[in-house]
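Table 4 source record.
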Amino acid sequence: MTTNPLDDAPLSRFHKKLAVFSSGGPFLDGFVLSIIGVAMAQFADQWGLSSIEQGLVGASSLVGILLGAYAGGWLTDKFGREILFTIDLIAIIVFSVAQFFVQDVVWLIILRLLIGMAVGADYPIATSLLTEFTPRKYRGPFLGAFVAMWFVGAAAAYVVGEVLARTGHEDAWRWMLASAAVPAILIVVARVGTPESPRWLISKGRNDEANEVLRKVFGPGVSIADLPQEEDSNVSVKDLLRSGYGKRMAFITLFWTCSIVPLFAVYAFAPTILAALELEGDAAHFGSAVITILFLVGCVVALLLVNRMGRRPLLIHSFLWSGIALLILGLFPGAPSMIIMALFAVYAVVIGGSQILQWVYPNELFPTEIRGSAVGMASSLSRIGAAIGTFLVPLSLTGIGIGPTMLIAAAITLIGAVLSQFMAPETRGMSLTECAALTTTRSALPTPSVV
């Protein structure tokens, strides 16, 4: 195991601040994608929206994330992490406020699409920056915390949505959708002054600037001479789809898709799904809030296990047991309310493992030159399934019923377990350079096993 000042540095105040500021993107993602479910319960009736129109509104942000994530990844690899770290959030502020004034569903879909693009762009930007500064001991928990912040944002959305809904004002939904601008403004202010990644500066030949950042963050005795060279110094974006990197991209995209398709579908229409399971009115909304908290609990538990248990076994067990919970829900949709909530609780807690690894794996398995593009492409490709799933949920509920809908979700989740069994590598304890090296990671691959 090699050592270097970045991978083995002690945790500092700078690292903690960067982790908090970087996680603002997933907080906004959770907020934006969840608040629409609460707001739609009001404006869908006002505007007389069909199931198809509701599906388009719910899926538009996911389509935007699909487009924005890859664009953001390419831009951050080309122009750097620092400058884009605030620009994307400014776009979220502008488009969120614009939702307050929207007068028809078409413009609402367009604005939600643009917000999704800005949110999607932030993921590769923020995760690349955090990855390239964080010591190896804390890399898994810090990156995994991104997903935990997604659920914090989702929980905040349900609270804000319920408070505004109880005002009884017919335009409360407008305030709900515009409210995302408030945390976005705070995050932009906090991110000002964040330095550029020294690894990215080195990859662009800007060694003097890299040395300046290293001295500022890690001390006067640290320079680029202390950092190991990455195995593939001339890796291009084309390598994302070929050779060993192509296999890694396939694995990440497949497991990510299997993880978020059921989850995003449930989140966009949580009150509707719980109502279909015969939890009505306040019980459905209360159940949504409880499930959100349990998702957060699951992420926290997974953060505690990601270094102890390892990436690979955590991923396999997460898919297996959450898929079984959804399978039972699908087979017995008429079960007593307490059993239904218990099964949703199991799913919410156990799926946390696959959720946090969505940001750990893609940032660890690719070199600096294409890290942002890799994260962006994986996020984009996985959102194709998520957008389709979110669009089809209302149609599925009305067309085939809640039982078959939950069975489909279970099948997707269990497919994730099978794929992970044969494709998931183990990167626990490796330096960032070792993780990204094709030969090193291949030799570290364990034989297929869940333990």
